[in-house]
Design a protein that fits this description.
alpha/beta; Rossmann fold; Dihydrodipicolinate Reductase, domain 2; 2 domains; six-stranded parallel β-sheet; 14 helices
Length: 483
């Protein structure tokens, strides 16, 4: 199998917040790897912009150090790094003032696609958009990339969309969610819509339930102040898990283009039943002898913010009526693991008798840490002694199925940044989609304020026991959290 790299047209990418953590850990290493792959068109340039006073040489040194730390094996390519750094420049920029904007205007190429990556807090998005227009850079060749959070509730999301819409058309706004750039997430669409095997079974007649798990083994770390204002519901459920939910549940789009795909995702959100209080469980991790509790890490001993949330959702449409979706996410859990499990119903009648046991087909889409797709099938256990049934996986773990060279996938940011340059919005959220997600989430968060505080759970566990009961009362069980 040969991987094809299709170069994009020459572009200018301006990273506003170019000295920040996201730029250092993700954006700059992603661009370096795309440069080494030959995907960046000749004449492209990357401009870092931030309040920090420094010159281009100092910024290039910072970029070099970031790539050495976060660039992986490719960072050893010193010749490639030297050439990549030659494309880098830096401008000191004031998001709320006029410092640096004329210099930025003069630095970007008028005949290039120009992408402005807002790697800053949402409170600055309006100021940045306004100044891009004021200084003549918000034309048809201009695109902006905005990071989550896209508001913290429906009202703020609407206001944010309204502000951006004053200066840019929706076709120019790229709301990035890195989960949608993962190879396996895109393979989910290929598996569903490219194989006759699955789509006829992808409905309530054959699917018993679907589980989506995004588990982290780390705590909140240095994000304590932000996280304590947001919690797992805002930080993960409303965006990352909601996006996975939509992709697994949506109807086949008429074609694979941005608006067709996003139209179908929006229909899923609008078909969601309101969440009942008994169908949601919140938790907060406790301390161990060596690791601090959530409240200790966020420096708020009275915090009622959740670090874990599990819920049961239902979709009121013809495809999914009666099929529950169980979603959970949390920090300080047993392992770092993310997966979607489509659990098919039992055979209507077993010809093998009670001794054969209970067996189910489960399609598992593994998102991290080992990306791949696995289908569990039931076979006869080899050997004499009667018909004993066992479940075995048909495993397409990419590293094993394709080999280590082919399974070294681009990081999600690599793919998404290149999609921005191409003008492909398929893997980016539309404004009405964001608002619909908040409209469903807001009443749930409002219940949190009136209800009980989060339940304590042990570090290294699967979350509160009540989360187990959430699914057990339906005669089902969570899948084991394992890497």
């Amino acid at each position: 199998m040969v991987s094809r790299v299709i170069p994009v047209e020459p572009f200018d990418l301006v990273i506003i917040g170019g000295t920040g953590d996201l730029a250092r850990r993700k954006i700059l290493p992603a661009l370096f790897r795309r440069y080494l792959a030959g995907q960046m068109g000749k004449g492209s340039q990357v401009i870092g912009a931030a309040r920090t006073e420094m010159d281009t040489e100092a910024y290039r040194q910072m970029v070099s150090e970031a790539i050495a730390e976060f660039g992986g094996a490719e960072a050893k390519n010193k010749t490639g790094l030297k050439k990549f750094l030659a494309l880098i420049s830096y401008i000191t920029l004031d998001a709320k003032g006029d410092t640096g904007w004329e210099a930025l205007h003069d630095a970007v190429q008028t005949d290039h696609v120009r992408a402005f990556y807002f790697s800053v807090g949402p409170s600055l998005f309006g100021d940045l958009a306004k100044r891009l227009q004021k200084h003549g850079m918000a034309d048809d060749q201009c695109r902006i990339v905005v990071e989550k959070p896209f508001g913290r509730d429906l009202a703020s999301a609407r206001e944010l969309n309204k502000v951006l819409a004053r200066y840019f058309d929706e076709s120019q706004i790229y709301r990035i969610d890195h989960y949608l750039g993962k190879e396996t997430v895109q393979n989910l669409m290929a598996v569903r819509f490219g194989n006759m095997l699955f789509e006829p079974l992808w409905n309530s007649q054959y699917v018993d339930h679907i589980q989506i798990t995004v588990a982290e083994s780390v705590g909140v770390g240095g994000r304590g102040e932000y996280y304590d204002r947001s919690g797992a519901m805002r930080d993960m459920m409303q965006n990352h898990l909601m996006q996975l939910f939509c992709l697994i549940a949506m109807e086949p789009p008429a074609k694979f283009d941005p608006d067709s795909v996003r139209d179908e995702k929006l229909k899923v959100i609008r078909a969601l039943d309101p969440l009942r209080p008994e169908n949601i469980v919140r938790g907060q991790y406790e301390a161990t002898e060596t690791r601090p509790s959530y409240r200790k890490q966020v420096e708020n001993r009275d915090s009622t913010t959740e670090s874990f949330v599990a819920l049961k959702a239902n979709i009121s449409n013809w495809r999914w009526a009666g099929t529950p979706f169980y979603l959970r996410t949390g920090k300080r859990l047993r392992e770092r693991a993310s997966e979607i499990a489509v659990v098919f119903k039992d055979a209507p009648h077993s010809i093998f008798g009670e001794d054969a046991g209970r067996h189910r087909n489960i399609l598992t889409i593994k998102l991290q840490p080992n990306e791949g797709i696995e289908l569990g099938v039931t076979i006869k256990e080899p050997g004499p002694g009667g018909m004993r049934l066992i479940d075995v996986p048909l495993d397409m773990t990419f590293a094993e199925a394709l080999g280590p060279d082919q399974a070294d996938f681009p990081d999600a940011y690599e793919r998404l940044i290149m999609d921005v340059i191409r003008g492909n919005q398929t893997l980016f959220m539309r404004g009405d989609e964001v608002e619909a997600a908040w409209a469903w989430t807001d009443p749930i968060i409002a219940e949190f304020k009136e209800g009980e505080p989060p339940l304590p759970y042990a570090t290294g566990s699967s979350g509160p026991d009540e989360a187990l009961a959430l699914i057990h009362r339906d005669g089902r069980a969570w899948r084991e959290i394992k890497a």
